[in-house]
Amino acid sequence: MIKNLLRRGLPALALSVLPLLATAVPAHAADGRDAFSSTLTVSAARDTASLFDGIDRIRAAAESRDGYVRTAFKHWNAGRLPADGCNTRAEVILEEAVEQPEVTAPGCKLTGGRWFSPYDDTWVTAASGLDVDHLVPLAESWDSGASAWTAKRREAYANDQDTPTSLIAVTAKSNRAKADKDPAEWLPPTATYHCAYVTGWVETKLRWNLAADDREREALLGLAEDCPGATVTYEPAP
């Protein structure tokens, strides 16, 4: 949990609630610019590059939304811990809680708890106020390659819990303002989170071998100018 909070740009003050866990991970810049950059030990299957090199590795292609329907991506699936009765969405919310809610089974009802939404620098005290955002939206993934995938692969994408850059719990308001926009059209209101957001976007596109069109690529390169030293670390999805 604490690793994900650091990567998502949680203010350092919030880590005081978990001091023992906080000592187990490296410190990151206070403005969150390297929040998605992995300085932890990674497996040999992962690859690391500068943010600029990562953008260059994203294949270029025109995008098309022809035929897209949200139901082409089956979600939310049963989570990793079937015994708790929680689906993928609820497990992401639980994993990212700064203060854990009470979980009532069956049905995975969440009561209490506290979360930080990095998109809009907002604290949330009820799970009902959160959305779980696909960092690269489902529609955007369809446009940039997922339309050619099998239904099983789209399902895996929509429920990807194997990297902290794919799914993120944020305020419902910020998620709905973003909708299916790419970084050429929308960025989080919190400017100090832009580098973390762009880095996570690039990591997700590389993990799933998704393309970028010219406008998106130009926006990413422009944003990378303000993120000196930022790196991307990703493991290609199976």
Taking the sheet with the most strands, its summary is: 2 strands, antiparallel
- Strand order of the biggest β-sheet: 1-8
Instruction: Tally the beta strands.
Output: 8
* Alpha carbon gyration radius: 17 Å
- Domain module tally: 1
Oligomer: single chain
For the terminal residues, how far apart are their CA atoms? 23 Å
Poorly predicted tracts of residues: 11-44
* Shape verdict: globular
Beta-strand share of residues: 5-15%
Q: What is the arithmetic mean of pLDDT?
A: 85
Number of helices: 9
Order of helices and strands: HHEHHEEEEEHHEHHHE
Q: Structural class from helices and strands?
A: alpha+beta
Helical residues, percent: 25-40%
Task: Walk me through this protein's architecture.
The chain is of the alpha+beta class. The protein has one domain. 30% of the residues lie in helices and 13% in strands. It has nine helices and eight strands. The strands form four sheets. The protein has a two-stranded antiparallel sheet. A hairpin with a 4-residue loop joins β4 and β5. α3 packs parallel to α8. It is globular, with a radius of gyration of 17 Å.
